[in-house]
Design a protein that fits this description.
Blueprint: E1 6-10, H1 20-36, E2 38-44, E3 58-61, E4 63-65, E5 73-75, H2 80-88, E6 93-96, H3 101-112, E7 117-121, H4 125-132, H5 136-151, E8 155-158, H6 163-170, E9 177-178, H7 192-201, E10 210-214, H8 223-235, E11 241-245, H9 251-260, E12 267-271, H10 276-285, E13 288-291, H11 300-307, E14 312-315, E15 331-333, H12 337-347, H13 351-364, H14 369-393
Parallel strand pairs: 1-2, 1-6, 2-3, 6-7, 7-8, 8-9, 10-11, 10-13, 11-12, 13-14, 14-15
Antiparallel strand pairs: 4-5
Helix pairs in contact: 1-14, 2-3, 7-10, 8-12, 11-13
């Protein structure tokens, strides 16, 4: 029987910073400690951290604080004593969830003590680099930094096949393993009474379709396409309500766009909701999740919606749409406001179809975090064996 492993879960984002990778790191740490072995989160310090709330160890290293709505800290893992801290914890494997500061930290550690390293590439970093880094020389440096961190890993994982396109754009030429993420929401049939409570809270009539968007409020998630499609539905005389859950750098601009399009009575911006049970209720009242992002590499929210038998409308060919069959386990459209609106108009009144597709999604695309992390944990043993064999040969 394989021994229980001690795993370092490296992440540059961890609560109070909330994003997809933060959620992934929490899920890995929780599931490993509950079911499989021991996990310690390795992450930058944050002035607002509340680590006492967690039942597992969180090791914080030096950081620079960036005052922003997202609340990110920038890790500063350059002191030798920090590297020795990790070595003294006697990890069996290091697993980084981003090719950023914590990955560089792990690189410095294995220079002193060889350990197997896995890196999961979760997001398309070229979007942020091309949008936010002002000069070519700075972009070249950033691309080079990311690529070196990726190449340093003993094994690279992606959450969907399509993510490999982003890896190749960064210059990565090696192999990779597809290791999908799971969902931390349980399979749930939201009761009629819970649906009624949320609808009363927001004065949503029972006889109109409800759409939902969940995620960061950032334009490159194709939120503009959602709003333009809703504007077309409004102009065509359709009644509906769109609930937007989340926050982000473009939140104020998005709200201005909503007012400009005359959608104030059609769109509800519910803001940041951290209570997972409450989020279940919002998925439960929604007929369809609108998630036209071509940025996301896996789309955790698609599985979250599926947990509540809520189908998703996705862009055909996107990473989020991998494994989705049109009008069977979800709905697919082209990457345009016109196509989103046309697809919604075609299915909006077909409640039986929406319910059937939602139920299929719940039964066939949902994956729990326990199952997802079990797959990863089993793979850890293979990575360790390969690492030991390689080093014995050396």
């Amino acid at each position: 029987m394989d021994k229980k492993l001690k795993v370092a879960i490296g992440t540059d984002a961890f609560p109070p910073t909330t994003d997809g990778i933060s959620n992934v790191a929490q899920s890995y740490a929780y599931e490993i400690n509950k079911h499989f072995g021991e996990a310690v989160v390795v992450t930058p310090k944050n002035p607002n951290q509340l680590d006492y709330r967690y039942d597992y160890q969180i090791y914080r290293y030096k950081s620079w604080w960036l005052p922003s709505k997202e609340g990110y800290s920038v890790g500063w893992p350059f002191k030798d004593e920090l590297h020795q801290d990790i070595i003294n914890m006697n990890f069996d494997i290091l697993h980084s969830h981003a090719p950023l500061a914590t990955s560089y930290y792990f690189r410095r550690v294995v220079e002193k003590k060889p350990l197997p390293v896995v890196l999961t590439y979760h997001t398309k970093y070229e979007y942020d680099l091309d949008r936010r880094v002002p000069t070519k020389s700075a972009k070249d440096f950033a691309y080079h930094f990311l690529l070196n961190n990726i190449n340093a890993a003993d094994e690279v994982w992606v959450t969907s096949k399509g993510t490999s396109d982003s890896l190749r754009k960064l210059g990565y030429e090696g192999d990779f393993i597809v290791m999908p993420n799971g969902c931390d929401l349980p399979v749930t049939n939201v009761s009629d009474s819970d649906v009624a409570i949320i609808k009363r809270k927001h004065n949503i009539p029972d006889d109109i379709p409800v759409f939902i968007y969940t995620g960061r409020m950032i334009w490159y998630k194709n939120i503009e396409l959602i709003l333009d499609a809703c504007c077309k539905l409004k102009n065509d005389g359709k009644k509906f309500k769109l609930i937007m859950l989340g926050f982000g750098a473009d939140e104020n601009a998005i709200k201005r766009k909503i007012r400009h399009l005359g959608l104030k009575d059609y769109v509800l911006c519910a803001g940041k909701i951290l209570d997972r049970k409450e989020i279940l209720g919002y998925y439960g009242i929604a007929d369809i999740l609108l998630f036209p992002s071509t940025f996301d590499t896996n789309g955790l929210v698609v599985r979250e919606a599926a947990a509540c038998a809520t189908p998703s409308l996705l862009i055909r060919g996107s990473c989020a749409a991998e494994g989705i069959e049109d009008c069977d386990t979800g709905f697919l459209c082209m990457e345009s406001a016109h196509s989103i609106a046309a697809t919604l108009e075609k299915i909006i009144d077909n409640k039986d179809l929406i319910r059937r597709v939602g139920k299929n999604a719940q039964e066939r695309i949902y994956i729990s975090w326990e199952d997802a992390v079990k797959n990863a944990y089993d793979r850890y043993h293979i990575v360790i064996d390969n690492f030991n064999s390689k080093n014995n040969i050396k």
